[in-house]
Every structure is written in C-alpha cells, then in structure tokens.
Amino acid sequence: MEERPYRSASGAPIALRRRQHSASCRELAVRCPRLQLRSLSAVTSAVWLAAYALFVLSENSMVLSAAIFITLIGLIIYLHFVKIDQESLLVIGSLGIQVTSSYASGKESTTFIEMGQVKDVVINEAIHMQKVVYYLCILLQDPGDPQGVSEVVPLFQSSKPRLDCLIEVYKSCQEILEQRKTALQSS
Q1: For the residues of 51-65, what is the DSSP string, one character each?
Q2: Which of 86, 116, 125, 154 has the greatest number of CB atoms lying within 10 Å of its CB?
Q3: To 10 degrees, the CA torsion angle through 173, 176, 181, 182?
Q4: Does the structure show a pLDDT above 90 at 38?
C-alpha cells in the first residue's frame, strides 16, 4: 500500500492511496482533507453571534432556539449528505468495478458495475468557466450496439483530482482491463 500526495482541481491537498490485492485486483482511494474544526467553529460562532444580536434587538428567545436548531440540522445534513472524505475505486478484473463514496458522518454509498458492462475507462476533458477540467469516467457498453456507449459514469466527482493523479488511476485501471482482454482472447 502506498499513499502519494496530490492536489485537487481547486488546489486543495488530496492523497491517492493505492493498494494491490492481487495481479487483477486493485483498490485506488482518493482522500480529501478532513473537516477542519476551526472552520466549523467559525461558522457556528458567526451564526450564533448573529442570532444573539437579533435576540438583543427583539428580546425574543425563540431567535436563539431557532439559530441553535438550524445550525445543528445544517451540520447534520452537511456531514451526512455533502462532505465526502474518501472516494474509492476497487477494480477486480474477473468481476467488475466498485465505486464507493465515504461521507464525513460514516455513511457509505457504493455502486457496482459488472465487468461485462465496462467498455473502457477514459480520461475526459470539459471546459468549465474558461478552464479545462479533466475527469475520469467509465464507459458502459451499449447492449444493443457492441461498438456504442450507453452511459458515461464519472468518477471522483467530489475530490476532483488534477490530471497527474487521474493518469495514475487510469494506468492502474488500464493494466487490469488489458489483462482481462488478453485472458478473454486466449480462451
């Protein structure tokens, strides 16, 4: 298992952890920075100070109660549905590709794509706000047309790694896909 530091498209530090379980099984995980207690405290304090100022002006205790309630509910929603700590890709040559997103609350979201559906893994580019943004995606084979693509599944949507990190993941995926292709051709 090796971990290398990279940067996201926005310049934030991320880390790519690469673990090889066997010759045809690799796990690639991109870890985002953890939620900083300093920024969380600053936002909470700002909301509560604004609520206290409204309380002083209006002399209504419901303002303080509402501020505390809204802050807690907002934090729970952010940790459970928005803040992703890690995105991982488990590529198993004989089975398929498992994509997992781990949220700050501990919740995990997993999607599995059978290898028979995978046409290729590619690095795509898009122009966004006068910038070229690169992203890794899985091309799913169209069941009706063997040469066609039925769906494009983007990967690492939250961490948004830069091109150098994407190339590392791409090469690992391509090695396993090539092993599978040669095994299918020889049998």
Answers
A1: HHHHHHHH--THHHH
A2: 86
A3: 140
A4: no
